[in-house]
Amino acid sequence: MNKFTNTLNHIKLPSSLSEEIGNAYSENISKEQKKLFGQFFTPAKVANFMAGLFDINIQQKEFKILDPGCGALTLSCALIERIIDQNEKIEKIEIDTFDTDPSLEVVVTNMSNILKKWGEVYGIEINVNYSNSDFLLSHKIHLKKDINTPIYDFIISNPPYFKIKKEDVRLSVFNSPLQGQQNIYSLFLLGASKLLKQQGQLVFIVPRSFTSGVYFQSFQNIFFKENDIEYFHLFNSRNDGFKKDKVLQENVILKAVPKCKTRPVKIKISYSKGISDLELLKEKEFPINLLFQKIGTLNIIHLPVNELEEEAMNLFSTWTNNLGSYGMKVSTGPVVPFRCKSQLKHRKPKNSNYAPLIWMHNCHKMRLNWPNKKTDKEAWIYDNEQSNSKTIRNQNYIFLRRFSSKDDNAKLVATPHLEKYFAHKKLGIENHLNYLYKLEGMLEPEEVFGLSVLYNSSIFDAYIRSLSGNTQVSATELNALPLPSIDTIKKIGVQYLSLNGQGIEEIDNIVNKAFKLSKKHT
């Protein structure tokens, strides 16, 4: 318990008051407003955990702090409480806060006054400078510079979360261009880091999606060139971080510092199921070169949260091949239904040139369910000159779902397909599916089933989860992922085929045996 609660045990801490005020405010605004501002207030328990990650200089008499998406000031309050608890010499704390929601001004003003009076009890000057403006645009002069601007000792934030359009003016505030569709939270993280003093510290809670994926590569290239990560905390549940707002999001808390000559060789990772068990978190150190890796041209960050993910990370790091090594490739299905609606049919017309159309719902682990008459999706696509570019040759493939639902048990679902399954020369592959094929010639059945078994295994799913917070695995990522030798892949396929269609329950046993893996996880 903080030292000052003993003297003022009849007075609530500012972070607790802020949480109460924030909850009352949140209950009286619409979902549309929350979505507009990407606004999800931080629970006090999470705020105190984040504040606890800062190393407090017990000799420093003044601190300059930034909270770039301040909400109801819960994070600011928690950090101020932490500083006062740890530093007996503290005399002054100044904090700059920003939020674009104009209706929060009354909330922030009230909490600022509470903080100021609370600080006076201890003889500490606490000044809150609030700006109802966009943090990034307010600092565009600093962010455009080639060198960082040292302003803040500490930065703490739960930034807004929403995708921004390519023409968004906030993308132009950075000197180095950011490629692809960005999320506002990554811009806040990058912008804030450029304002840290050399000995400064930054703690953010953000979605985990920045750790992998094509869209975040340019962000990673800039952020990790200038900063080092010292700590990650993961919530192993998607729905416990911001439960009251019903946010289904894989969140991660990170602590970063400006890069220096003595770069850390290890990073601490902790995880909890959610907020309720934060005190029971499990913590472990990992070599930085094992967590930060490059697969193909992609930068990835592994964040294992259990022994199976750690085992997968270690196993895959020993593999040096990928699909390209074997003349194979994954592409995205070319059929976009709303663009060729007139060429799609539920039933095949007689005496006409139609090809089977494969959708995501047709594809299950090791099994193609086509046609599925229980859905409203068309099962056929007209194969004429107009739709010829939307159909592909019927041959041996692996169909891979591009998306999983947020509550799906598997990140990846692989469905083997052999040419003989259809008496048609062409197939239509809907855009939510990826398909794996050989660039020259055709996949052998052993390759089809060997790769399908591997993709559907628990160890492969654990590897994907260790590097991705997304609900999709892109074709770019699949093409880059490490693979074992082609002989091993074929042996796995042969063993599965020898079970004559009864092998789906044996997938993990087959893969575990092939790589001498522990059985205790399955």
Explained architecture:
This protein is of the alpha/beta class and 522 residues long. The chain folds into two domains: 4-305, Rossmann fold (3-Layer(aba) Sandwich), CATH 3.40.50.150; 323-515, Alpha-Beta Complex (Adenine-n6-DNA-methyltransferase TaqI, Chain A, domain 2), CATH 3.90.220.10. The protein contains 17 helices and 22 strands. Strands 3-2-1-4-5-7-6-8-9 form a nine-stranded mixed β-sheet. A five-stranded mixed β-sheet has the order 13-17-14-21-18, with no helix packed on it. A hairpin with a 2-residue loop joins strand 10 and strand 11. Helix 9 (184-193) runs parallel beside helix 10 (217-226), helix 12 packs across helix 14 (458-467) and helix 16 packs antiparallel against helix 17 (507-515). The longest helix is centred in the N-terminal third of the chain and has 17 residues, at 105-121. It is elongated, with a radius of gyration of 26 Å. The chain starts with a helix and ends in a 7-residue tail after the last helix.
* Principal-axis shape: elongated
Query: CATH topology of the largest domain, which one?
Result: Rossmann fold
Distance linking N and C termini: 41 Å
Strand content: 15-25%
Uncertain stretches: 1-10, 238-248
Count of DSSP-assigned helices: 17
Overall SS class:
alpha/beta
Q: How many strands appear in the DSSP assignment?
A: 22
CATH superfamily grouping of the largest domain? Vaccinia Virus protein VP39
Mean pLDDT: 87
